[in-house]
Design brief:
The chain is α/β, with parallel strands linked by helices. The protein has 14 helices and 17 strands. Bound molecules: adenosine-5'-diphosphate and magnesium ion (MG).
């Protein structure tokens, strides 16, 4: 756990970068600091490992006041990843990853062997070990940066816009890999970004900061999208937030319809018999959907081949979100959303109207719940942010810490 306790940072020129920050980053979770440029994200992050000293206030690491811990000792337990990875250009990839183990005096051969394991863990082939950073793409360099930060197996990871310098497709890949890695490692992570989409994708909780270095809102991604505390947060969270919030709502058991299907290689005559409103779904031998077939394109005597498939539609996974369910219905050429099980096998199809009905009934339930519990509707969700910890004990209902600073 990392806890900011009334932390202030005023730079020598008078700039107040962080102003009375109270924040708790729970162990084993990802806490994202997000906000516009200059709102004090980097300053806050660097105060955690004492690259920057607070002007006043304290930062706790579990039960230790970090102000009393040697910076070098503190940093050994805190991996640090920055934009552009910050690799040593004249060291090979494997030696970059092994930087900290080398410093700690780990035997070089062992440190390199571990470094190669870590490279594979972050999705880099071992064959890259002897390359130099300049011989890698931006996304690959960023992976090296993550591997290097993980090399000493620190319980805490501090990440400052680590994925901001790469293109959107690579960024999405890095984010997905990062989430997969974290689900295995369970580190305590403080992650800084200016990108609200990245924040809601990665964060277990998200702290929105405003310029001047105060906390505007601390909430789960779903709460942030559903319930921004004020116009600043609503504006920052941005357009489509109603739709995006569906990404954090479980779809539950939706009415599932039987869907007629064909297989690759089936004749057009079979397609004609099976098609419903002009479309039929093609499966492979494991009943995994391969794409939709337009019945007009497959007359009798022609067989269903891969080039006839329309693959544009997304699949709704069972147990997925309302957003995934609605998107599957809206993106399907037939208008019928494809629902699949854990193995990707077809369960049936779902309808946009029925997903909307589910959305409306869940919204109605939420409105009813907040009407019957008027106190602090935006207080931290106890399930995911334990114990509204940054609120002072004397004011347990203060939902928007920092708003009065
Ligand atoms: P962010 O990472 O959110 O963009 P920073 O923490 O880098 O913001 O900066 C917060 C504020 O502090 C900004 O106004 C910035 O100009 C100022 N600042 C940052 N570093 C210094 C410094 N060394 N001296 C003076 N002002 C600084
Ligand atoms: Mg910054």
């Amino acid at each position: 756990m990392i806890k900011f306790d009334s932390v202030v940072k005023q730079y020598p020129d008078g700039t107040v970068a962080v102003n009375g920050l109270d924040l708790l980053a729970p162990s084993g979770q990802i806490t994202v600091l997000v906000g516009p440029s200059g709102c004090g994200k980097t300053t806050s992050l660097r105060m955690i490992n004492r690259m920057i000293e607070p002007t006043s206030g304290r930062i706790w690491l579990d039960d230790q006041d970090t102000g009393t811990v040697e910076p070098a000792t503190l940093r050994r337990g805190m991996g640090y990843v920055i934009q552009h990875a910050g690799l040593f250009p004249h060291r090979t990839v494997v030696d970059n990853v092994a930087t900290v183990p080398f410093l700690l005096g780990v035997d070089k051969k062992r440190a390199r062997a571990q470094a190669i394991e870590l490279m594979e863990r972050v999705g880099l082939p071992a064959s890259f070990a002897k390359r130099y950073p300049a011989q890698l793409s931006g996304g690959q360099q960023q992976r090296v940066g993550v591997a290097r930060a993980l090399a000493a197996d620190p319980p805490v990871m501090l990440m400052d816009e680590p994925f901001s310098a790469v293109d959107p497709v690579v960024r999405a890949e890095l984010q997905d890999e990062f989430l997969r890695l974290q689900s295995e490692l369970g580190k305590t992570i403080v992650f800084v970004t200016h990108d609200i989409d990245e924040a809601v994708k990665l964060g277990d909780q998200v702290a929105v900061l405003r310029v001047g270095g105060t906390l505007a809102q601390l909430a789960t991604p779903g709460q942030l999208l559903n319930d921004p505390v004020d116009d600043f947060v609503a504006g920052f969270v941005g357009r489509d937030r109603g739709y995006r919030s569906l990404g954090f709502e479980q779809a539950g058991d939706l009415p599932t319809h039987q869907e007629p299907t064909v297989k690759l290689g089936d004749d057009g005559a079979r397609v004609q018999r099976a098609a419903l409103a002009g479309w039929v779904l093609a499966l492979d031998d494991e009943r995994r959907p391969q794409g939709w077939v337009n019945a007009h394109a497959v007359p009798p005597g022609v067989s269903v081949g891969p080039t006839l498939l329309q693959r544009g539609g997304t699949l709704a996974p069972v147990g997925g979100s309302l957003r995934a369910a609605l998107d599957a219905t809206l993106s399907s050429p037939s208008g019928r959303g494809v629902l699949v099980d854990e193995n990707g096998a077809l369960l049936g199809t779902i309808r946009a109207g029925e997903v909307i009905e589910r959305i409306e009934s869940q919204l109605a339930a939420r409105r009813e719940a907040s009407a019957s519990a008027p106190a602090a509707p935006s207080a931290a969700d106890p399930a995911s942010t334990p114990a509204a910890p940054s609120a002072p004990a004397s004011a347990p209902t203060s939902a928007a810490e920092g708003a009065t600073a």
